[in-house]
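name: query_chain
kind: protein
chains: 1
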Amino acid sequence: MRGAVWQIANRLGVVAGTPAELLSALLAGPPRTVRVPLPPDHELVASLRALGHLDVVLEEPRVLPPGAPVDLDDPAAVCAADPFRVTEAYEADADPHGGLRTAWLRAGQSLVRDQPRAGRALVLLSALDDAADPRLGPALTEPAAGAPWRLAWSSRRPCTALTTAPDGRLVVREDRVLAVACRADSTHLVLDERGRLHPRGGPATRLTDAVAATLASHPATALAAMGDTVLTGDRMGTVHAFSLEGLEQAALHTGRVTALTATTSTAYSGGTDGTVRAWSPGRPVVTRRPCPVGALHATDRLLAVAWADGLAQLHHLDTGRVASFRPGPRIRAVAVTADGSLVVGLDDALLCLSYRT
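structure:
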């Protein structure tokens, strides 16, 4: 069942690990045509049709290639085998296999995609938890050496929001907030789930009091700090810049603003319209995909973007090069470290990846 869910979710640009999560994601979106490579009597087909606003088109079911059983204890074997066969085998076998089964089922939506063996090994390595057999890490690191990314470190620490402090220190929030921003004085600004502002780590100021009062009646959907300016986004697609000199506004997106970030010179916004814009003359589109933006973080040279379909990208702003990584689960937040590494925040983990040059 999981293989079918992941395959359909990948086609539709959503993240889902169970049939219930898939149906919920589809209900939250517009009516659409769903092409399903499943037999007519499959229970997932009946569930999709029961939603009512989907046009379900059946395709020829995927036929798993014949072959000997996969050794589910061997990291190299599961990375090289057909991923749908591996998924079925792990679903049918409750043995943890040293932690390989748990990691595979955690990152499966990425693992079932067509990709080189090295890329699959890297994703599986990043999904290992602290209880995994310690021999699995080295066993997966070797085949993952051919991937464009290197896993610098990982932590089974939950994450809902990320940013960096002025000194480069990573700031991680675990308490279900929408966003966190750091001001030049290292004060943390937190945007809660209701879209309201809370200063942390220092006294409130006249500016933060004014922004908090505004958001109490007009909740925000995104937050960033740029020098002495506080940036917020709203559900109508407008970005607001609050400073002691006044308020500047720009309608940058069609639909909700979902993410904001800023360097000392440039602010960037992302929205449900699938665009990332720079708030500069002309307000150019930096990147666009047919998928909502989930999170942003920028330095002077690098821009990290998380997308709602589970893709993380690191954009090199000076060269235009883009490096991509899919961990499998939904990405909650991203950040760029002082050395140019990409930190990806998930519901149950933090991953730090360095791009091989």
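note: Residues 161-355 form a domain with the Methylamine Dehydrogenase; Chain H fold (CATH 2.130.10.10).
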